[in-house]
Amino acid sequence: MSRLRAPKGQEGMVLLVTLSAIALLVPLVYAGMESQRFHLRQVQRELELETAHRHAESLLSLVVAVVKMDGVQGGAIDHLNEPWAMPITLPDNPDGTTEAVVEDTSRRWNLNALRKEDGQPNGELRLVLRRLAAREGLSGSMMERVVEWLMPTDKMARPETGGTPLAPEPLHALEELLKLPDWNAEAVRKLAPFVTVDDTCRNSRLNLNTAALQTLEPLVPEANWQQVVERRTTTPIAQVTDLAGAGVALSPDQSQLLTVGSHCFVAHIRSRVQGSAAMLTAWLVRNGTRVTITKTRWDG
User: Fold this and answer.
1) Residue 269 pairs with which residues in a beta bridge?
2) Quick check: helix, strand or coil at residue 201?
3) Is the pLDDT at 144 greater than 80, yes or no?
4) Beta strand extents in the chain (DSSP E only)
5) What is the pLDDT of residues 82-117, one digit of tens each?
6) Bridge-partner residues for 101, per DSSP?
7) Runs of H (alpha helix) within 89-173
8) What pLDDT shows up at residue 235?
9) Any idea what DSSP says for residue 180?
10) Whole-angstrom Cα distance, residue 290 to residue 176?
11) How far apart are CA 98 and CA 51, in angstroms?
């Protein structure tokens, strides 16, 4: 029996067509595989990020509980060595880490408090901050730039607004000071240990029991604040008027800048699962033993 064979020229054509088809299919198959891998990586990252968010929210609940417990215990002592002020970790995260650092913003002067609730400038705080700036080698005009930002006038209308005066806007981060004339990174670094810009607790007062010596000094430069700091380590200051017993005389306006308990906190929570990380920032206000989360922000 004879077999039918394709002419040699026709066999070459078939082979050429086959090879061409394979050449076209290989990139498509590879692209499909890469697309599938990319999709799987995306799904994995989303799952990791969802887990990181869940861990951060769980740790925030723990932070609220600890800050509340601190309020039950009085909240008037210096918290530098208190367990809640140290990094708090969530142990149930075998594939990563979840850690929170709680900042007591009541221990620093709040720049946003330069503008009172009625919209007027806080003259006494303005003077304190000018003294603080001078001590750190900064010009008094720099604080005036902050006041102008918080209480803009017609003179501050910017060209991009079409000449419309700027609306009052609080500072949300110390880095925003770099937007203001005369300010630079070195100036921000010098003031960072003594000031905050907690915009959810703008009218908070400075805690006499937690503020550092160098933070207190600009209020009444001639006072013996060292004696106050030493005394509070054994006996917390119960009320602002007790300063008179330590030889610190305050005017009524100066007294209005102070308190004896911490009320405002910011929790910075970092959570990582495998290669995905999330940052949760939460602003807390404590009133007695009640802790309220006033604002949260996610990064990642």
Assistant:
1) 100, 280
2) coil
3) yes
4) 88-89, 96-104, 109-110, 195-196, 206-207, 258-259, 264-273, 276-287, 290-299
5) 555 567 777 766 777 888 888 889 999 999 999 888
6) 268
7) 123-135, 140-150
8) 84
9) S
10) 31
11) 11
SS3 223: coil
DSSP of 51-90, one letter per residue? HHHHHHHHHHHHHHHHHHHHHHTTS-S-GGGSGGGSPEE-
CB atoms within 10 A of CB 106: 26
147 half-sphere exposure, CB direction, 13 A CA radius:
17
Nearest of 148, 217, 54 to residue 206 by alpha carbon: 217
The residue type of 190 is K
Q: Which residues of 147-184 are buried (b: 16+ CB within 10 A; e: fewer)?
A: bebbbbeeeeeeeeeeeeeeeeebbeeeebbeebeebe
Instruction: Please answer whether residues 114 and 129 qualify as being in contact, where contact means their C-beta atoms are separated by less than 8 angstroms.
Output: yes
pLDDT averaged over every residue in the chain: 82
Q: Closest by alpha carbon to 199, among 127, 295, 130?
A: 295
Question: What is the SS3 assignment for 2?
Answer: coil
- Contact assessment for residue 271 and residue 277, using Cβ atoms and an 8 Å cutoff: yes
pLDDT digits 0-9 by tens, 194-214: 999 988 888 789 999 889 999
Burial of 111 (0-12, 13-18, 19+ CB in 10 A): buried
Report the Cα 2 to chain-centroid distance in Å: 87
Give the Cα separation of 288 and 75 in Å (integer).
9
Q: Are 190 and 90 in contact (CB under 8 A)?
A: no
Q: By C-alpha distance, which of 229, 280, 259, 269 is closest to 113?
A: 259
Question: Which residues are within 8 A (CB) of 235 and not within 5 positions of it... i.e. 6 or more apart?
Answer: none
Q: Which residues contact 237 (CB under 8 A, 6 or more apart)?
A: 76, 208, 209, 228, 231, 243, 260
Q: What is the pLDDT of residue 256?
A: 94
